[in-house]
Protein 1
Amino acid sequence: MTPTDDDPDLPVWDEDAALASVGGNRALALSLLKGLCATLPHELSLLRERHADGDLPGTAEQAHHISGGAAYCGVHALRSRLTLLEQRARAGDVNGCRIALSAVDAEATRLLAFSEDLS
């Protein structure tokens, strides 16, 4: 069975997808992933700030922004959570955003822990 983007058991990093994005260059795929992880805390801080301000359009835009990088780097589990947050924000679902943001934070924590072991 191939995992789908809404699969709760998606791997933290899909190396095959990341390699496909960069023509098979593993060093480049790792470099991009590390770059994403380096900027992720700041990007998530902006996301949380927009959410805390009640700025649902800004929340949706920031989630979409982060999601693009996550997709390119093969980080589909995080992208899946960000997509749900974006959808909830665009729908005006304040409580759904809160729940989705919590899932984004949990997945980001998992990714950042994973990235510490990359070589």
Note: Confidence is low (pLDDT under 50) at residues 1-5.
Protein 2
Amino acid sequence: MTYARLLTMKVQPGRKEEAIDIIDEFGKQPVEGFEGMLTLLPTDDPDRVTIISLWDSEQSMLNSQRNVVPRVSKLLGDLVIGKAEIHSHQVREMRTQKKLVHA
């Protein structure tokens, strides 16, 4: 069963790419159970970023939330305005036509 964490944050104006670069670096590091992530940029808010990370089990996702999320949050520091919203989900179905899509 696949699980997903949805993390949405508001970043300082003009610093979105800097925040995404920090998150992308963590996405490249091996973490047990990590299957991939999507970076979403809302079209109605240029300073908001949403990350969907996919996990092979609920336990892997929860372990990462205890161990990885705090480290990323510390690196993001003052780039983030307020507190990031984090929600966990069980993935019922996922369909794709391509393995990796860059916009």
Note: The chain is about 30% helix and 35% strand.
Protein 3
Amino acid sequence: MKARPDMRVPCVILNRGAGEPLHRQIVRQIAAAVADGTLGAEAHLPSSRSLAKILRVSRNTVVTAYDELAANGLIRAMRGSGVRVNGTAPLSGMPLAGMRGLIEAAHFPANVLRIEDSDANPIYIRY
């Protein structure tokens, strides 16, 4: 890996014995670094080959993680330019579990209507 003064290597600690896949651990930790400002907007990240070598994982693992981060709008990879951080994640890229906690913290919805279908199965309408 060529030394680049503007390259930021994210602090990623992998727990190989955890039930969470390695690529998800990488995604979670890089996303957290972007969210807390450790990795600022436009920061250069290592190539997939370089990060795989640093973390001692398969390049496919890093490619999968980078693809997921790009799909969530956190990073962008351009051939010849490397991988860069976009900045903070767009709200639409937030996982559903994160959105649910955000919505519940805002005390929304205020009301829940419980009705039953013809088979007596409950249906909840939140408004």
Note: The longest strand covers residues 112-116.
Protein 4
Amino acid sequence: MPIETLVHHNQALYYKALQDSHAVAQVDCRPFIDFMLDAIANSLYKYIDVATQTVVDVPANVPANVPVNELSDKILTMVRANPKVTAQKMALALGVADKTIKRHLKTLGEQGRIQRVGSDKAGHWEIIDRPA
């Protein structure tokens, strides 16, 4: 996640850290450094939590030679964790281009596994459960 985004999401804490850094006669940058390290760590923990969640939903009769698309499964895991997640955030978290994510989302939609509800900006994703 870009630093600007971290600052934007934590503006009040950012300005407080800046004030605390300049509160004494001699500038002490430790409050600002602590803020930045905490913001980065919290951001990373969110992505680690999403990446470590695994959902196993494989029917018993799937043939052994059917390839599993790991990226599509990771996308579905992220959507389950946060239905409002954007393609850009998924791309950043998974280390691929947004076009790659959009291509996989289109394929998942064509397969009837996922659908977009609402607009691109204000909508959300829904996982389409298959009957067992």
Note: The helical segments are 3-9, 11-21, 30-52, 70-81, 87-94, 98-110.
